[in-house]
Design goal:
The structure holds 2 protein chains of 2 kinds. Chain A is built from 14 helices and 2 strands. Chain A is mostly helical. Chain A has one domain: Orthogonal Bundle (ABC transporter involved in vitamin B12 uptake, BtuC). A two-stranded antiparallel sheet of chain A has the order 1-2. The termini of chain A are close together. The N terminus of chain A is likely disordered. In chain B, helix 12 crosses helix 13. The model of chain B has no long low-confidence stretch (mean pLDDT about 85). Chain B is about 35% helix and about 25% strand. Chain B is of the alpha/beta class. In chain B, the strands form 5 sheets. In chain B, strands 6-9-10-3-11-12 form a 6-stranded mixed sheet, with helices on both faces. Chain B has a 6-stranded mixed sheet with strand order 18-19-20-15-21-22, with helices on both faces. The chains are: A mainly alpha, B alpha/beta. At the A-B interface, helix 8 and helix 9 of A face helix 2, strand 8 and helix 5 of B. Chain A: This is Ribose transport system permease protein. Chain A: One of its GO terms (molecular function) is transmembrane transporter activity. Chain A: It is found in: Cell membrane. Chain A: It is a multi-pass membrane protein.
Chain lengths: ~325, ~500
């Protein structure tokens, strides 16, 4: 019984925020030397817009990953959601509410399907959600060659482009969703049970947690977040876009952001605050390289290296923790 | 059975249970009063764990009745038993290392205020619970992964108490504890007793049983041998109750003195995290039996010799020359083969064919350009020689019986002409007929000049097969017994009631 083990747990600041500050500082310097300006209003605004879209997806992704699951269908669901929203609105401001409602309902349905496949049919989450994603892809490829529908002008003006100072409305939406998700994890029974299911399903089950119900709920929430991201992208683009989700690599990028944020891919540890840090880190790297006009392929290489380095750091930390 | 106590907390009557036609419990009675510590002792496989699982809702009994709090109960699962007030502390803790003490204690029934988890209340109540078991120093907001084993055990107990447990089952609670932590546990048990909680205490360690228990029930081969007040018995008497049965099967003849070859393997002062000061000699042509309780270091010894979890201290020699067995591959090169205890997990590749399984080691150790056809013919001959019964050698091995799977594993190692073969529970889960075939094969290996080390929990097998027996306890060699030793001798060494004999 060491003295150290008697100290109350201190939850360390996720390392991702340190990395974020360093990246922005060094990046800003490099860009300045290059003759550019990272902290220019236009750059910051575009960075926050990128972060808003990815962030909404990644916060949802965090919920399923904390629960020990995964969602690979989000990219296709985002595209579907842009189409459902834009086509229902068809340019009419009066149809905003029904359109948003319909897009979210469809998303919740997809999440329910994912959740049931993972829990009731015991299909590995990787396979189940990939399968559902491919189902959606089939529908999208079959029905759409290009953009369809028109987003209501009000929504484009507000959610798409309006901002307060340099902060876009969409980023505030992300902040609100993140706060809600944080609150859910920290202060509701569902949140506690979700972390427990991800940590050790057997322990959770023996403690009276209804694992299946918890995981299905997490999947529905994750898909709702993806649906929301779709609505935002539709407002941004002014139309439904059948490839926007896959071209934006929202599936893998969202998982990368979650992992960068310190959430264990196996579940049971982590949270949404770190994820937002991961999203901002990815978005900052993007912005810096855009400013430097670096080759797109090289940019991908750097992103890959950052993700691998982050995971290696976490793995070492987990190893140390396991030994102590 | 006449019960001196007016109202037992728990009364088991005529409990019976079978798995796949094998009877593991028959006609077991047991009573436990409030505030009583009732120890349940017996050899490995005597049925203790099954009985505890029946009480805690893990399995339904096939026969008999469970009466708890004067009410006949048929628990539908562990949760059902928990709600009724029966908690179980497993050897392996059911805790989430990434969560705080309070979050673990109240998992599944977090206190709510206006629909939200009331953290303040959760922490307060947890602190009170911890204080009530004398662990006020343990912070309720500490992350469980940072706690020591003893503290985690306290958290487990608090978790059970948070559900108002009236009966606590402790399954080998001291197995993972250091000596000074055991004293803490003793204090804790006393406090629980004072609160009127009944304790079922399963342990191999007789010292503890005599220190703590009010009554002791001895199980053997799934039956209750006796229940005695602790004051009326002695450790020696208990050991006699725990063993003592007739040899029920025949074993091949032991090695004659001239069958024994030179010393093949020696270990001096071998140690690692699980082993201490291990010293042994293994001769060509002999079967050296290794006995001891679960967790006494028997498998750790085999794993050390095979390089899975190597010795970190000490010296090993093979045929007189020092060797370093740092990995399974190094051990295989040195001519050591290992037939693992966990056949399904480590012994066979379930979805590959009989032939592929038999060829596994030859392929990985053989020269890449060796003639495949010749190898295949050789292995087919071996499979036939060990009498593997399969529809064909192309059949997936998972469809074979346990005994035939084990024969395939044997053929795999025989193909390498090993000089030393380590067997860990070679006949576990194998039917009687195939058992004697395996026994004959083990002996044939020794006759052919291999040195055999055989770990077994099956006492008749250990006594019937071995030319000498080493008994392990707490990571050390507790003593050596010659052929012709009795079950009492082995058990006495294994539980530590006998004086150490010189190995």
């Amino acid at each position: 019984m060491s003295a150290q083990s008697l100290l109350p747990a201190r939850w360390p600041v996720p390392g991702v925020f340190v990395a974020l500050v360093l990246t922005v500082a060094i990046g800003g310097l490099v860009v300045a030397v290059d003759g550019g300006q990272l902290f220019h209003q236009a750059t910051v605004v575009s960075l926050l817009h990128v972060a808003a879209g990815l962030g909404l997806v990644a916060v949802g992704q965090t919920l399923v990953i904390v629960g020990g699951s995964l969602d690979l269908s989000v990219a296709y669901l985002i595209s579907l959601s842009t189409l459902v929203a834009a086509e229902t609105m068809n340019g009419s401001d009066g149809a905003v509410l029904p359109a948003v409602g319909l897009a979210l309902t469809v998303s919740a349905g997809v999440g329910l399907l994912n959740g049931l496949l993972v829990t009731r049919f015991r299909i590995n989450a990787f396979i189940a959600t990939l399968g559902v994603g491919l189902l959606l892809k089939g529908y999208l490829d079959n029905g759409y060659d290009g953009p369809a529908g028109v987003t209501a002008p009000t929504l484009v003006r507000t959610l798409g482009y309006q901002r307060i100072g340099p902060v876009p409305l969409s980023f505030l939406l992300l902040v609100a969703v993140t706060a809600a998700a944080w609150f859910t994890l920290a202060r509701t029974r569902f949140g506690h049970h979700l972390v427990a299911v991800g940590g050790d399903p057997e322990v959770a089950r023996l403690s009276g947690v209804r694992n299946d119900r918890v995981l299905v709920t997490a999947h529905v929430l994750c898909s709702l977040c993806a649906g929301l991201a779709g609505i935002y992208l539709a407002s941004r683009l002014g139309a439904g876009a059948p490839r926007v989700g896959t071209e934006g690599l929202y599936d893998l990028e969202s998982i990368a952001a979650v992992v960068l944020g310190g959430t264990a891919l196996a579940g049971g540890r982590g949270g949404v605050a770190g994820t937002v840090g991961g999203v901002l880190l990815l978005a900052s790297i993007d912005a810096i390289f855009n400013q430097l006009e670096v080759d797109a392929f090289f940019k991908q290489v750097i992103r890959g290296a950052v993700i691998i380095a982050a995971v290696a750091v976490y793995a070492r930390r987990a190893l140390r923790r396991g030994r102590s | 059975m006449a019960d001196p106590r007016p109202r037992p907390l728990l009364a088991l009557r005529g409990i019976g249970k079978s798995f796949l036609g094998v009877r593991v419990l028959a006609d077991v009675d047991l009573d436990l009063g409030p505030g009583e510590v009732h120890a349940v002792v017996g050899e490995n496989g005597a049925g203790k764990s099954t009985l505890m699982k029946i009480v805690s809702g893990g399995y339904p009994p096939d026969e008999g009745s469970v009466v708890f709090n004067n009410e006949r109960r048929a628990f539908r699962g562990p949760r059902d038993a928990q709600r009724a007030g029966i908690g179980i502390i497993h050897q392996e803790f059911n805790l989430l290392p990434e969560r705080t003490v309070a979050e673990n204690v109240y998992l599944g029934h977090e206190p709510l205020r206006r629909g939200l988890v009331d953290r303040r209340e959760m922490l307060d109540r947890t602190s009170q619970l911890l204080a009530s078991v004398g662990a006020a120093a343990l912070p309720a907001d500490a992350r469980v992964g940072r706690l020591g084993v003893a503290q985690q055990q306290i958290v487990e107990i608090a978790k059970a108490l948070a559900l108002d447990a009236r009966l606590l089952i402790m399954d080998e609670p001291t197995a993972a504890l250091a000596d000074h932590e055991v004293a803490l546990l003793y204090g804790l048990v006393r406090r629980l007793q004072q609160r009127g909680i009944g304790l079922l205490y399963v342990s191999h360690r007789l010292t503890e049983v005599f220190d703590l228990a009010d009554r002791i029930t001895v199980l053997k081969d799934g039956r209750r041998v006796t229940t005695v007040p602790t004051a009326d018995t002695t450790p020696d008497e208990l050991v006699r109750h725990m063993v003592g049965r007739e040899l029920s099967s025949y074993y091949p003849d032991r090695a004659a003195p001239d069958d024994l070859g030179p010393v093949r393997l020696t270990v001096r002062d071998g140690g690692n995290r699980k082993l201490h000061g291990v010293r042994l000699e293994l001769r060509a042509g002999e079967v050296l039996g290794v006995g001891g309780l679960q967790g006494s270091g028997r498998s750790a010894l085999a794993r050390a010799l095979f390089g899975v979890a190597p010795f970190s201290t000490g010296h090993v020699t093979l045929d007189g020359r020092p060797v370093r067995l740092r990995s399974p591959r190094a051990a295989l090169r040195a001519g050591i083969a290992y037939v693992t205890e966990d056949r399904k997990g480590e012994g066979i590749v379930a979805r590959q064919s009989v032939l592929d399984n038999a060829l596994l080691a030859s392929r990985s150790m053989g020269r890449a350009w060796s003639r495949r056809a010749a190898r295949s013919v050789r292995i087919r001959n071996l499979l036939a020689a060990v009498d593997v019964r399969a529809a064909g050698y192309d059949q997936e091995i998972r469809f074979l019986s346990g005994g035939n799977q084990q024969k395939v594993v044997l053929a795999r190692w025989l193909a390498l002409n090993p000089r030393i073969v380590l067997f860990d529970e070679p006949t576990r889960g194998i039917d009687v007929g195939a058992k004697s075939a395996i026994h004959a094969l083990v002996r044939r290996l020794a006759r052919a000049g291999a040195a055999v080390l055989m770990i077994s929990s099956d006492l008749p097998e250990l006594l019937g097969m071995s030319d000498r027996i080493l008994v392990m306890r707490e990571g050390r060699i507790a003593g050596e017994l010659p052929a012709g030793a009795t079950e009492e001798d082995v058990v006495a060494l294994a539980v530590g009631t006998a004086r150490e004999t010189v190995a």
